[in-house]
Amino acid sequence: MSKKVGIPKALLYYNFYPAWKVFFNELGAEVITSGNTCKKIIDDGVKSCVDEACLPVKVFVGHVIDLKEKGVDYIFIPRIVSIEPKKYLCAKFLGLPDMVKCLVPDLPEIIDTKIDLYKNDKSLMREIVRTGKKFVSDKAKIYMGYYKALEMQNKFEGIMKMGFSPNEAIKSLEGEDVKVINNGNLKIALLAHSYDIMDDYICMGIVDRLREMGAFVYTIEMIEKNKIEMGVRKLPKDSFWTYGHDILGAGQYFLDNKNVDGVITVSAFGCGPDSLIEDLLERYYKRDGKIPFMSLTIDEHTGEAGILTRLEAFMDLLRWKKGEIVI
Ligand code: SF4
């Protein structure tokens, strides 16, 4: 019988799930994901974590508990230090497997593959082989799984560049016929970590809400890398966190080109990197004064009504600015 590998539907699930799934499937394992975030998952995560942890980490821990209850053989919690040369991810990703082991007792075996591309050295392949050997002894099969995973990652990113959100791209890769209504007359850049805006429970389906209100929504994943880099080149100083770099670069790109009607940032309460990135962007937009900017902070107590009211008010402001409504 094939081994079951659990993948929590949280944090970088939204950035890498299709590739991770292909890798484990190629090794003969069955991949099980945790359920959608719900009150129980949040409550379990909040109860198990220290108060100071950011919301996405609390949610992640809740998803790990969900997988434990599903009776999987392994839970995949990679130790992600860096996903590109000369940039790091936030320190929470580096310590995630250790943090989870300390917080949740009686877990199945954690697969803590170390991903560190900071120096672009060969350590990643060693880690891939170490991980693969839990399932098969044939190295060629492990390499094949890895290359198929890379192919899948390229395909996944290509779909998102066509205007699909990570959730929609995942569904499309799973064979669903996904139709995106992304044709509003107001263009909005929604600059945030995918795990903050793709989890419909913690962010109230913000992408679809904005689309329903008549916005064409750009998320970070939909923006070409060269545009982000164009923005970064204009910054007085780059961020050494990959996702902070992308958010700042995209923000600066839209500010320079004036090709969106408004910008919304979403950050999680308790997130150190985002408090800095968001504050910098807000200052740049205020100084320029041409494009409306709104920042939203979410936590485990955020209510739907509060978010919706702010989105509606922001959309009204953009319509008023375009002369479409009179206030
Ligand atoms: S970047 Fe912020 S939200 Fe993401 S894991 Fe780190 S502290 Fe949490």
From TrEMBL:
Location of the DUF2229 domain: 4-223
Domain of life: Bacteria
Alphabetical list of PANTHER family matching this protein: BIFUNCTIONAL PROTEIN [INCLUDES 2-HYDROXYACYL-COA DEHYDRATASE (N-TER) AND ITS ACTIVATOR DOMAIN (C_TERM), BIFUNCTIONAL PROTEIN [INCLUDES 2-HYDROXYACYL-COA DEHYDRATASE (N-TER) AND ITS ACTIVATOR DOMAIN (C_TERM)-RELATED
The protein, known as: DUF2229 domain-containing protein
Annotated organism of origin: Aceticella autotrophica
